[in-house]
Write the structure tokens for this entry.
Amino acid sequence: MSKHLLDLNDLDSDGIRELLHLTDLFVEVSQRPIPKVPALRGRTIAMIFFEDSTRTRMSFDLAAKRLSADVLDFPTHTSSLSKGESLQDTVETIRALGVDALVIRHGSSGLPREVAEGVGETISVINAGDGLNAHPTQGLLDAYTLCQHFNEVAGSNASLSGIHVGIVGDIKHSRVARSDVAAYNALGAKITIIAPSALQPDDVQNWPVEVSDNLDAVLPNLDVVGLLRIQKERMGNDAVTSIADYIECYGMTEARANSMRPEVVITHPGPVNRGIEIADAVLDKRPNVLVNKQVTNGVAVRMAVLFRMLGSGIEID
Ligand code: CP
């Protein structure tokens, strides 16, 4: 495996399974009275977030600290980038400080890969979400959460075979959808993406999925409904229906949730637009809504990723 994690499409099924199985070990660590191991003592990880984040940033931070690494926060708004320093020179400066890994979120698709190509194999680059392109740790944590729900653990041969996942909403602008599809497909799930045509990706014929614009027609067949956030910040000029029409056709309203088998699982990567993708009552009261479980598992998944990228040859403890 490369020193970098940029896109789940760079990994084969075994590479994804290896990270999910490692996550089992870090879920166990996270449940200890003192959920901390010395595995990455002496390593330094820089958090470089050019876009806002709550879940990803805090869980990478917590993951690094639970592995006993030092964390360096890069202040994107007050750094010397504002004086005209190039990102390339900034990365070179961070590397010269002795950092072992860069965790990068950026609005430009492909920027973490450019950084990785610049640093070669000297330090690790981990993509924490780039534009519309990829959010690999979200894909891993979503897949892990489903494996855990259906099989208790991922195990060494993690599988979602026999599970039909519907991914609903703004697929076109969603890096989460792209990484979820990569992870679910690697584990053998059947995937249907469900969106109005304006929110379907232009190259959807190349995706390993079925496509529908009719949630109510597909809903009875699904084991998992993966809701996505309406991403107003990425929509540009793509005209969608009104929010009211969107809710009527694609929102997880109480009526729609009540029509589903109780065992059907609902996921959402967050942050949630309450009352749009999902009704308050469904989010707060329905069983098998795994939103908080996804967040919890995000820490163990990111521990697994950091350990895999930086901890070669080291015992977890
Ligand atoms: N799911 C996700 O990436 O959330 P944040 O933007 O809060 O990190």
Summary: Residues 136-290 form a domain with the Rossmann fold fold (CATH 3.40.50.1370).
